[in-house]
Design a protein that fits this description.
- Keywords: Leucine-rich repeat, Ubl conjugation pathway.
- It holds the Pfam family F-box.
- It comes from Sylvia atricapilla.
- It contains 10 helices and 6 strands; from the N terminus they run αααββαααβαβαβαβα.
- By secondary structure, the chain is an alpha/beta fold.
- The chain folds into 2 domains: about 40 residues; about 180 residues, Leucine-rich repeat, LRR (right-handed beta-alpha superhelix) (Alpha-Beta Horseshoe).
- The protein has a 6-stranded parallel beta sheet, covered by helices on one side.
- Helix 6 runs parallel beside helix 7, helix 7 packs parallel to helix 8 and helix 8 packs parallel to helix 9.
- The termini are far apart.
Length: about 230
């Protein structure tokens, strides 16, 4: 029995066990399998482990998407999560090449995936408060938002949660160093039903401003002269 002789339900079930690349490669073999690849039921869950994966054409975005995870654990994450003023020219060039990759992808999700239920972002150093704000506005059913080591996330995201996260039940902002205790307390006060976790966030040293860097450099030169 040839695989194409199976009914649509069986084929979708078989495809569900394959990774994105395998699904795409199988879809290239015949029109029937391409139709299975394009079945919305196949794309309710998406996991990505590198920003490069977001640019591939081996998946579909649409209203069927319920769960999305972008977790980048590469050593290069440390570079992108370093304060901008501390990066050398090579590091800045590296970060600039993919600075908008995740943000642009999330804005696409906002427009095409209104039924999203959970979002997990880890190591996404370029994701901004505005991205999360737009997601909360455009995905009103979002129940779980987990952010880890996303250094550009600030109290503005926490405020957006209190204003637009009516369906939210779980919020993690672990190792997000620019989140403050005041912002966390505000969420606990205004959204008591939300399970909030902020491991290390408010206790980490926030990004230093360029002015502070200049002051540190001047102080260092004075010490050397002394």
């Amino acid at each position: 029995m040839h695989i194409t002789q199976l009914n649509r339900e069986c084929l979708v079930h078989l495809f569900s066990f394959l990774d994105k690349n395998s699904r795409k490669n199988l879809a290239k073999t015949c029109h029937k399998l391409l139709e299975v690849f394009q079945d919305p039921l196949l794309w309710s869950l998406l996991n990505f482990y590198s920003p490069v994966e977001l640019k591939k054409d081996n998946f579909l975005l649409g209203p069927a998407l319920k769960h999305l995870s972008i977790c980048w654990y590469s050593e290069r994450v440390k570079v992108c999560n370093t304060e901008d003023w501390m990066k050398n020219s090579f590091q800045k060039d590296f970060c600039k090449r993919h600075e908008n990759t995740v943000s642009d992808f999330l804005l696409d999700v906002c427009n095409r995936c209104p039924n999203l239920l959970s979002l997990t972002l880890s190591g996404c150093g370029h994701v901004t408060d505005n991205c999360i704000l737009q997601l909360l506005k455009n995905c009103p059913n979002l129940k779980s938002l987990k952010l880890e080591n996303c250094v550009r996330i600030t109290d503005h995201t926490l405020k957006a949660v209190t204003l637009h996260g009516a369906s939210l039940r779980t919020l993690h902002v672990d190792f997000c160093r620019n989140v403050t205790q005041a912002g966390l307390d505000r969420v606990r006060e205004k959204c008591p039903s939300v399970m909030l976790r902020a491991e290390r966030s408010a206790n980490m040293i926030p990004d230093s401003k360029p002015e502070k860097k200049l002051m540190l450099e001047k102080a260092s030169r004075k010490l050397v002269q002394f």
